[in-house]
Amino acid sequence: MQSRRWLSTIRRARRRLAQRGVAASDINVLVAHAHDPPLSRESLFLHPDKLLTPAESQRLEDLTSRRLAGEPLAYVTGVKEFWSLPFKVTKDTLIPRPDSELLIDTLLNLHTKDDPLRILDIGTGTGCLIVAALAEFPNATGVAIDISPAALQVARHNADTHGMASRMICIEQDMRRFDRDMTLHWATPPFDVVLCNPPYISMDEVPWMDAHVVLHEPHLALFADHDGLALYSVLRSPLRDQLLRPGGHVLFEVGFAQAARVVDLYKGASFIQSTRLDRMVVQDVQGIDRVVVMQTRP
């Protein structure tokens, strides 16, 4: 009787979610995460109706209710995959997105995997960019900065989970205010590469954004003044004068229709097109300008 009741809990949760238009993939993830420990994709595929304990049954009810209330799946489960690696996610961090993987793809086109790079990740959040980069470049070391102590705690956790903690440090730092004396201890020597996915959404875009993003993700990591370009502008001088070595690269993620303006900002600050790449703007699979690559003068 109990096994029948717990099986019906799974089926009821699936039905509730499907009726509200929740994707089947989301439903399967919630069912997998109701189990303790969570089931792998393979185990869930082989045993889609694996029985739940009473505690797991209640957990599924709770997870289902949170998802039905509009909470993003990654916050409900506390995990999001990026670069084929699982990352802890909390409401103190943005949810990693597939679009940002283009930064890592571009970095792989700039350097060979055995290069002993020094990499800086500005606005690290979960640490997904720096951890993915270090995973691809085994001789590299990195520094991850963020204004949020809570986000840095998540980044440290993810670095430790993926065996990168010995190769990176996390620093609490406001990307809007780089003081040379404050950065001297972690920006010496200067970096070969800077990765940055800054806040770049204009507040004017809020009416057209998905409600679950506006309601749940940290606004400090989403929005910027001056049509979303404020942080790109602020970072020009510190990148050129303090953070990057001569001939070093900065890789920015940019928002829709921002790439040309970011390129112009950096050309005006004496940055040049990379000598290793035949373009300054890299498009995603949909043909949208997604990454800007600029180089300091060698």
TrEMBL record:
<dbReference type="GO" id="GO:0032259">
    <property type="term" value="P:methylation"/>
</dbReference>
<dbReference type="Pfam" id="PF17827">
    <property type="entry name" value="PrmC_N"/>
</dbReference>
<protein>
    <submittedName>
        <fullName>Uncharacterized protein</fullName>
    </submittedName>
</protein>
<dbReference type="GO" id="GO:0036009">
    <property type="term" value="F:protein-glutamine N-methyltransferase activity"/>
</dbReference>
<feature type="domain" description="Methyltransferase">
    <location>
        <begin position="115"/>
        <end position="197"/>
    </location>
</feature>
<dbReference type="InterPro" id="IPR050320">
    <property type="entry name" value="N5-glutamine_MTase"/>
</dbReference>
<keyword id="KW-0489">Methyltransferase</keyword>
<dbReference type="InterPro" id="IPR019874">
    <property type="entry name" value="RF_methyltr_PrmC"/>
</dbReference>
<dbReference type="InterPro" id="IPR002052">
    <property type="entry name" value="DNA_methylase_N6_adenine_CS"/>
</dbReference>
<dbReference type="Pfam" id="PF13847">
    <property type="entry name" value="Methyltransf_31"/>
</dbReference>
<dbReference type="GO" id="GO:0003676">
    <property type="term" value="F:nucleic acid binding"/>
</dbReference>
<dbReference type="InterPro" id="IPR040758">
    <property type="entry name" value="PrmC_N"/>
</dbReference>
<dbReference type="InterPro" id="IPR029063">
    <property type="entry name" value="SAM-dependent_MTases_sf"/>
</dbReference>
<feature type="domain" description="Release factor glutamine methyltransferase N-terminal">
    <location>
        <begin position="10"/>
        <end position="78"/>
    </location>
</feature>
<keyword id="KW-0949">S-adenosyl-L-methionine</keyword>
<keyword id="KW-0808">Transferase</keyword>
<dbReference type="InterPro" id="IPR004556">
    <property type="entry name" value="HemK-like"/>
</dbReference>
<dbReference type="InterPro" id="IPR025714">
    <property type="entry name" value="Methyltranfer_dom"/>
</dbReference>
